[in-house]
Amino acid sequence: MFIYLLLLTVIVTVEAQRVTGQQKTDSCLCKINSSIWTFPAFRFEEVTRQVQICEDALNEFTEKVRNTNAELPLMEATLQNISARLTAFDYLHTSGLYSALHLRQLNQELEEIHQSVNETHRQNPNKETHNLLSELNRAKNDVQRMYRDDFFNLETMKKRLRDLNNRAQSCKTIPNDFRSSCHKRILTRISSPSITKLNSISKSYISGAWGRDALLTYKERYWEHCLVSGNKHGNTIRVYNSLEDFMADNNYKDEEVAPSYSHENAVQGSGTILYNNTVFYQCYSTAEICSFNIMTHETKRMQLVDAGIDNKFPFCYYSCRDWTDIDLEADQDAVWVIYATEENHGNIVVSRLDPLELNITHTWKTHLFKRSVTSTFMVCGVLYATRYVNTYQEEVFYAFDTTTGKEINTLSLSFEKVSPGIANLNYNPVDGKLYMYNDAYLLAYDTFF
Ligand SMILES: *[C@@H]1O[C@H](CO)[C@@H](O)[C@H](O)[C@H]1NC(C)=O
Ligand SMILES: *[C@@H]1O[C@H](CO)[C@@H](O)[C@H](O)[C@H]1NC(C)=O
Ligand SMILES: *[C@@H]1O[C@H](CO)[C@@H](O)[C@H](O)[C@H]1NC(C)=O
Ligand SMILES: *[C@@H]1O[C@H](CO)[C@@H](O)[C@H](O)[C@H]1NC(C)=O
Ligand SMILES: *[C@@H]1O[C@H](CO)[C@@H](O)[C@H](O)[C@H]1NC(C)=O
């Protein structure tokens, strides 16, 4: 006679259960699996009891059911709201934007930065380390909240972490001479080319690098390195002991970095640099940095963790330049490596290397997408990036100061070139010149601060 249908959506398993009440003799009977009432029915407990026993007076029973019905839409709305939130969570979960694992990684990274800043603060307490520590504590609390409340904005958190990390890197204890006075001065002008010459081997070698030893002050040691094999690999570096010899292609020595261009110690890409009689370059087909000492012929290798290689993150402004994933630079005190990682979304990462130990001492992560620049160079701990203006003009448009972790986006220093493509740019702290491998041409410029 009375058939009541209660349709309840149970959130946890999102299953619906239909409950039928039946009149039998003088009582109403129905079966209910009570385990479905675990949520959120504390407000409906009384009703539940009534439904379960089905023995109340009809009026009372109807009244209860009416109440239930009145409350059902409310309950349903709540459930929908929760389901909607879970859906978003699910989406983020399945599309990889969020997972507990990411949170754990975030936490771990935070912990590492914290330890590093703690250490720095212990050795040299100052306002910056103090501020960093309190910001790190805030960030840690936020991550804890993300765990607790499923409140998350992972991307924002990652950005914050990157900035904190850059600041931590910049205030780490570093050699005294690292903060050389020059870092405060930003490049203001680049001259017209003071040297222009075709490389000494062939006009068809459009990729490579050239320059002057970035450390030796007592000697003019010029070098040129052309990539063969599809502008990808190389195994010799041509060395000259004077500018006159270089200009005349005279008295050079071809130093063998590896026995062949397909040897595991061969050079890949045009990021090579010569510093203190040592060639630093990307090792053949791996995310490793090699150093080859031309006096001792010793080769060392070092893993560059997460670096994109094999045209994953080349320099690409205007048109992509193959095999430019890893760019080495040098200044008075250190060798720098410029690359990009997936973790930093393809944006440029700068690491400072100890040239003798060949290990990384500092790493900064910039917001500059590596594919959006033509080439980079370092002056006094400041990274500069250029972009293509036209066939005969290039422009420095960006700088990142590793001593402050700050980016400068307002630069506009143009300079001339003779051909559209740039395979390598490097700055030499000994003579203050900027060296460019411009398709097959070798150019040098004076710089002004
Ligand atoms: C009651 O529901 C739970 C979960 O929905 C289920 O595991 C259990 O087997 C059910 N019990 C009966 C008697 O149907
Ligand atoms: C749904 O949830 C959000 C936040 O969790 C809350 O602000 C909103 O009032 C809820 N809406 C309903 C209908 O409960
Ligand atoms: C930082 O140092 C303080 C005390 O000096 C210590 O309590 C804390 O655990 C340290 N934190 C980390 C992450 O090492
Ligand atoms: C340059 O190389 C020599 C010999 O390998 C080494 O003794 C010296 O310390 C190096 N100088 C610098 C500044 O790295
Ligand atoms: C670099 O290597 C040297 C010697 O192996 C070690 O003493 C030093 O701590 C290392 N530096 C870093 C930053 O790993």
UniProtKB/TrEMBL annotation:
<dbReference type="Pfam" id="PF02191">
    <property type="entry name" value="OLF"/>
</dbReference>
<dbReference type="InterPro" id="IPR003112">
    <property type="entry name" value="Olfac-like_dom"/>
</dbReference>
<feature type="coiled-coil region">
    <location>
        <begin position="44"/>
        <end position="71"/>
    </location>
</feature>
<keyword id="KW-0964">Secreted</keyword>
<dbReference type="GO" id="GO:0005615">
    <property type="term" value="C:extracellular space"/>
</dbReference>
<dbReference type="InterPro" id="IPR050605">
    <property type="entry name" value="Olfactomedin-like_domain"/>
</dbReference>
<dbReference type="GO" id="GO:0007165">
    <property type="term" value="P:signal transduction"/>
</dbReference>
<keyword id="KW-0175">Coiled coil</keyword>
<protein>
    <recommendedName>
        <fullName>Olfactomedin-like domain-containing protein</fullName>
    </recommendedName>
</protein>
<keyword id="KW-0732">Signal</keyword>
<feature type="signal peptide">
    <location>
        <begin position="1"/>
        <end position="16"/>
    </location>
</feature>
<feature type="domain" description="Olfactomedin-like">
    <location>
        <begin position="181"/>
        <end position="449"/>
    </location>
</feature>
